[in-house]
Write a structure and sequence with these properties.
The protein contains 7 helices and 4 strands. The chain is α+β, with helices and mostly antiparallel strands. It is elongated.
Length: about 375
């Protein structure tokens, strides 16, 4: 709408005059006076309307990039909230498994105490990790509730009654494209694209201010009726042209200001490029780090911890290991599983941040 308005020509002016009114006759007596009606139209030459429209269209493009940035922010924040809630759901599930396993160990130790296989103090020692597992479960459930509230807030709901749980799993870690291919897509970032349009708008303003140095002529066309007091009751057409003289005000200050703003737009674009390049490099390093950590845990750490725990638990039932070794193996296993959830959450969160910076899914950059 602003671009439409900027491209319109100025409206003509309609004027009328009455001369030689009689001071003796009533004011309403115009029969002996002279009347004139004229229309004046400013003529904007040198492409002024088009240059104003160019400036307004650049502002429209800037508003479009602001909208795109806001849209990407909503998508990115919602995705991160979803990933965080999936991680919270998995932590709750892991905490429940730990409680269940701790209860099994506690019951086993209790039976061994009753049969006299172990000392009664072992039962009290087994109660401690069970209590800690229940505390961890309550904390995980509280974190999940907070994550649900954060996610529901993304679509404007302060409550979480619209859903009970989210369905999602952390699948296999996908490969990350090279840093060069990711940086090549940085130009799609709305902030950087906006800086380029700001530069184009500044150029358009300079061109407009230069055209405003030139005067705007006005063409006048009218009709005049000569009064009867002159003895010649007749009519005539009249025409004229007026042209402002640019003697002192040649719009020189506005032109200089527009040039300074053009230079500022160039510097801002350079600064935005450096800032986004640095931010992207950091986000990419975090993504690669999380990817490597998640892969190492899945391929090496977790299988080893799982195998060790199963061996120790089986040996404990056969009397080969004591309770402390079982507890240590259990603590190690669940610590690794929590670490895996954290690493996968970091990986997907970092992936979202990189995709937000380049405004492109990483699958398209492979």
């Amino acid at each position: 709408a602003q671009a439409l308005q900027a491209g319109l020509w100025p409206n003509p002016s309609l004027g009328t005059e009455t001369e030689d009114l009689s001071t003796e006759d009533p004011i309403g007596d115009f029969t002996g006076s002279e009347q004139m009606v004229q229309v004046s139209q400013p003529i904007e030459l040198w492409g002024r309307p088009g240059k104003r429209r160019d400036v307004a269209e650049e502002e429209r493009d800037l508003a479009g990039w602001d909208y795109e940035a806001a849209r990407l922010d909503v998508v990115s924040q919602t995705t991160q909230a979803f990933v965080g809630l999936v991680a919270a759901e998995q932590r709750v599930q892991l905490a429940r498994e730990l409680v269940h396993l701790s209860e099994e160990v506690f019951q086993t130790v209790s039976r061994q105490v009753e049969t006299g296989e172990v000392r009664p103090v072992e039962k009290q020692r087994a109660r401690v990790p069970l209590s800690q597992a229940r505390i961890r479960l309550r904390r995980a459930e509280e974190a999940r509730a907070a994550g649900r509230k954060t996610l529901s807030g993304q679509w404007g709901r302060s409550d979480t009654t619209t859903f009970r749980e989210v369905e999602g799993t952390f699948g296999p870690v996908r490969p990350v494209p090279s840093l060069d291919s990711v940086k090549a897509a940085l130009g799609r970032n709305p902030a950087l694209a906006r800086q380029q349009d700001e530069l184009e708008q500044a150029r358009a303003v300079v061109s407009l201010e230069k055209s405003d140095r030139l005067p705007v002529p006005a063409v006048t066309v009218g009709w005049q009726r000569f009064g009867g007091r002159t003895g010649s009751d007749r009519t005539a057409l009249k025409a004229g042209v007026s042209l402002p003289l640019p003697l002192w005000d040649r719009n020189q200050g506005a032109v200089q200001r527009a040039r300074f703003r053009l230079e500022r737009a160039r510097r801002r674009r350079e600064a935005a490029r450096v800032r986004l390049d640095t931010t992207l490099s950091k986000a990419y390093r975090s993504l690669v780090s999380a990817q490597n950590e998640a892969q190492t845990i899945a391929e090496e750490t977790l299988p080893a911890a799982q195998s060790a725990f199963e061996s120790v638990r089986q040996g404990y039932r056969q009397g080969k290991f004591d309770y402390l070794e079982v507890l240590d193996a259990q603590r190690t296993l669940f610590g690794v599983r929590r670490q895996q959830i954290q690493a996968l959450s970091r990986y997907y969160q970092a992936r979202v941040r990189v995709e937000r910076l380049v405004a492109t899914p990483l699958e398209q950059l492979q």
